[in-house]
Amino acid sequence: MWYPEHVSPPPAARDVDWALRARGLVQGFVRRIVDGALPTSCALCREPVAGDHGLCVPCWRKVRFLERPWCEVTGLPMRLDLGPGVLSAAALADPPPYRRARAAVVYDETAAALVGAFKYADRTDLAPLMVAWMRRVAAEMADVDMVVPVPLHRWRLLSRRFNQAAVLAAGIASHLDRPHRPLVLARRRATARQVGLSRQGRKANIAYAFAVPPRARRALAGRRVLLVDDVLTTGATVEAATRALLRGGARSVDVLVFARVVAGLEGSLYSGSHSPAPPLL
Length: 281
Ligand SMILES: [Zn+2]
Hints:
By secondary structure, the protein is an alpha/beta fold. It has a single domain, classed as Rossmann fold. Helices cover 37% and strands 12% of the residues. Helix 1 crosses helix 7 and helix 5 packs across helix 7 (164-176). The protein is globular. The model is unreliable at 1-18 and 266-281 (pLDDT under 50). Zinc ion binds at residues 42, 44-45, 47, 55-56, 58-59.
């Protein structure tokens, strides 16, 4: 609905307009993802690609895919394979609010280049590739009822044109054949950018940034949610979003991200060449 510049629309009308616009944008991207083919030139260096990896061989070798053994809750790699269902000491000492978290790749220079292009350079053609990698670790999360992206505040959404987490979430929802529910979680207020803040600073900055709108509570009640984001750094964002979903009535929350920071994983571990990951010892 159009309003003259000097007249503010009533809040309710503005919300409805916003919701409709968000839904339209997301549906457009869903179609692009479903119809999208993997890039024919390398997503990183633009060299022609022969196979179906979406990356040339040298770039592909740089990608560090996360593999088991990992902590069943946090998804962080563990040095020893102690069998299925083992939790890390960190998850036992300080249990996160989510049921489990998984990431496709380690957030390093290569992953950062992909995410940066996707996020800030409008490379939506990278989405099918990123979703394909996330699908590898999403298989064990098929028991969820809906897929929800970590929302952007609407002001940032306007400046960035689209919520990259919603694009990834739409692709995962389509793959798992579960509904994509981008309006179940809302950003309550604009938060300062997380970049450059300490862990405590990030936690305080983000703690109350999310909320479940009253109109979404019925859809969420008793449901198992798969929360999707592009990058997990300290975990403060997905933990705050998880707590908001649980407060809003969700039964459980799983977290799936494209890339995550893994401390102490320097070097060539988990190089992506389809060969088994080398042991971490
Ligand atoms: Zn390349």
